[in-house]
Amino acid sequence: MATQKKNTAAEEAAKKALEAVQAKKAAEKKKVAHTYTQVGQQSAGKEELLAVTRKNALPYRIGAFILWIIAIVFEVLAILVFVHKIEFSFTVENPGWTITWIVLLVLDLICVIIGSQLWKKANHLDPASSKNKVGFWLHNNLGVIMAVIAFVPFIVLVLLDKNSNKQSKMIAAIVAAVALVIGGLTSVDWNPISQEEMLENAHIETVYWTASGTVYHAYDDCSHLSNTVDLLTGTSAAAIENGKTRLCKTCEARALKEAGEEVADKTSDLTDLTEVTDTTPVQDQAEDSGDQAA
Ligand SMILES: [Zn+2]
Question: Are 202 and 242 in contact (CB under 8 A)?
């Protein structure tokens, strides 16, 4: 209940912030030295926008699954080599045997890591809904689960293997455990984005972004754009369609700050209104408030 209230308050603040940005922009109409290009059309509706983001993310999702499947194939091969189901000309004493299963585990790890990066990229292009917290975490961190699938069976089967000596089994389990930790940590999305967060700002009239960036900006003079030569501009929906699904944190903080100042002004106006029993509209009251205080 408390969280619900807090969220609503935050949403209100964000909305006010964005309105403030729009108002400020309309007032300033500032010219900057960047190259402007009008990009894209604003999607008619939420569903249309989500259809585009789904399409943008699809190749990355397919790539992630292909790499994860290859990772599991390498794991199976590593198990088969370890338990001598696949015999090259190696023996247990032959270092070639150790090198083979280690190389297979490393290939397994590489596929897990690249697959997870593709998956994270897909989730940033096409964020999941955060309505179900557990589902949201699982969706964003599917790579962690894949890392577990890509290494835990190896660890278990190696430790259960009756034909290998204890030392080899321990070394194999430790190597796989290290790979599991590396694969797991690199697969976590530490800064996930939700569909709600993306859609919340999808109505801004004018935003700015760069071809290589991952966010869009509310201000063309944002510090992150200081080195930008080719600045692209359009609606936030167009930015989202171009893969920039999140509002820049610096711009968001600035908008919130400006909105905060505006809210503070309004509050003081209201205080003045309650003191002076006048029917003058708030706007006029604001201009007069200085005189009245004096
Ligand atoms: Zn910015």
Answer: no
